[in-house]
């Protein structure tokens, strides 16, 4: 594959997660091995078999938008706006004047405004169609998280929203990288936002038998690679990266976290929910090829690692097939979902941020709750404690319902 000369770097990170509101708060909790999972408070979950989730705690939309803006937007859009604000602030880009046509936005969501949809349906049934809020439609559709970010900050470049279940965030980052590489824009605001901790959302995943039911110890329920895992834990929030063409970033004196050098996207073409593993392998190989790196040049994999019995084994097998003997001889693989829960469409944005921070700080976040590691997941999963070690390259995996796979590769910036 011919390399494109325009290089892409990460200059801003904004996180709204179950571990904290803000990048510093979230990162410090992650490297301390804290869990953001607890009993559901958004609604009465007492009759459900799974009664816990990774909720964002203490979120005050007034910190990021006025009351009218908050009322008009579903929680997933509020999370996205907040994370975008934090990312732009972190990148030291202007918040009070238009970013212009050389700045674009690709921010997606797996399911969009589910809580607004539920509430409005009840309103329409009980009170009639005249009581439906005129902002109902723009509050629930997925592309409005990116649309609202674009409007708020005057980002007039490319703007759309991928919807690819749990791979959404990585698709957003990868496609944003491509637009910069091809010269369409100089700056992209990219990632994902999700808020599906609702009666309908939790009930749906429960019906699919996808969720952990460890109600007596919710903070220990998300346990990727542990043999006693019994399903994933839903989470909510947003992860937004500001990515930028390298010379543009240098000219304005931006702090650079790392370089974004690889992107691979595939389909299993196999099953709606059961992973084939083959599609994940191809995505990782395409990503490595795109970056021009060999498997043994990667030190860290931020795994998809959802804590499902089938999914974790399939991913570990895929990693071993791609990385060969090196998979057990130096490669570190951790799942930060053990702490945040699974943020669905926002997962790629949050985990891309964790990968960038791992490169920047030289600290690998752990997989917590590994008490009895599954022998089929026989990799170095950085169990229970963060590891301080400088690394040069990392990949972040995201695989979604429908057999969709997206992998990104990040490297320490090599000066030329």
Using the CA coordinates, give the radius of gyration. 20 Å
Residue-averaged pLDDT? 96
**By CATH's scheme, which homologous superfamily of the largest domain applies?**
Thiolase/Chalcone synthase
Q: What is the count of structural domains? A: 2
Anisotropy-based shape: globular
Strand content: 15-25%
The level-1 CATH class of the largest domain: Alpha Beta
Poorly predicted regions: none
Provide the succession of SSEs. EEHEEHHEHHHEHEHEHEHEHEHHEEEE
Report the helical percentage: 25-40%
CATH topology-level name of the largest domain: Peroxisomal Thiolase, Chain A, domain 1
Summarize the structure.
The chain has 416 residues and is of the alpha/beta class. Helix content is 33%, strand content 19%. Strands 1, 2, 5, 6, 7, 8, 9, 10, 11, 14 and 15 form an 11-stranded mixed sheet that branches. Strands 3-4 form a two-stranded antiparallel sheet. It has a two-stranded antiparallel ribbon with strand order 12-13.
Keywords:
416 residues; Peroxisomal Thiolase, Chain A, domain 1; globular; 13 helices; alpha/beta; 33% helix; two-stranded antiparallel sheet
């Amino acid at each position: 594959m011919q390399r494109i000369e325009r290089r892409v770097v990460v200059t801003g990170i904004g996180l709204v997660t179950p571990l904290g509101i803000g990048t510093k708060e979230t990162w410090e909790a992650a490297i301390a091995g804290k869990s953001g999972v607890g009993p559901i408070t958004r609604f009465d979950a007492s009759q459900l078999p799974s009664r816990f989730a990774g909720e964002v705690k203490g979120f005050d939309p007034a910190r990021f938008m006025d009351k009218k803006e908050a009322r008009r937007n579903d929680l997933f859009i509020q999370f996205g706006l907040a994370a975008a604000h934090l990312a732009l602030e972190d990148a030291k880009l202007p918040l009070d004047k238009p970013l212009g046509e050389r700045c674009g936005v690709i921010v997606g969501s797996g399911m969009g405004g589910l809580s607004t949809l539920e509430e409005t349906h009840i309103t329409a049934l009980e009170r009639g169609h005249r009581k439906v809020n005129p902002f109902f439609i723009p509050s629930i559709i997925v592309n409005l998280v990116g649309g609202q970010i674009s409007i708020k900050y005057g980002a007039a470049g490319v703007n759309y929203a991928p919807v690819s279940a749990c791979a959404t965030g990585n698709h957003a980052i990868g496609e944003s990288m491509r637009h910069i590489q091809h010269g369409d824009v100089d700056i992209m605001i990219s990632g994902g936002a999700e808020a599906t901790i609702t009666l309908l959302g939790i009930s749906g995943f429960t019906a699919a038998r996808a969720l952990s039911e460890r109600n007596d110890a919710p903070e220990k329920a998300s346990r990727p690679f542990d043999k006693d895992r019994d399903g994933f834990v839903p989470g909510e929030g947003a992860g937004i990266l500001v990515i930028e063409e390298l010379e543009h970033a240098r000219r304005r004196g931006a702090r650079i976290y790392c370089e974004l050098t690889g992107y691979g996207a595939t389909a299993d073409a196999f099953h709606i929910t059961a992973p084939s593993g083959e599609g994940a392998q191809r995505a990782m190989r395409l990503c490595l090829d795109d970056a021009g790196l060999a498997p043994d040049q990667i030190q860290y994999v931020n795994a998809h690692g959802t804590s499902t019995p089938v999914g974790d084994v399939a991913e570990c097998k895929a990693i071993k097939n791609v990385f060969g003997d090196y998979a057990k001889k130096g490669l570190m693989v951790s799942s930060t979902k053990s702490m945040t829960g699974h943020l669905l469409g926002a997962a790629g944005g949050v985990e891309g941020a964790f990968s960038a921070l791992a490169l920047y700080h030289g600290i690998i976040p752990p997989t917590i709750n590994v008490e009895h590691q599954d022998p089929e997941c026989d990799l170095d999963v950085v169990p229970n404690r963060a590891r301080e070690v400088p690394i040069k390259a990392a990949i972040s995996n995201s695989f979604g319902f429908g057999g969709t796979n997206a992998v990104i590769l990040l490297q320490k910036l090599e000066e030329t």
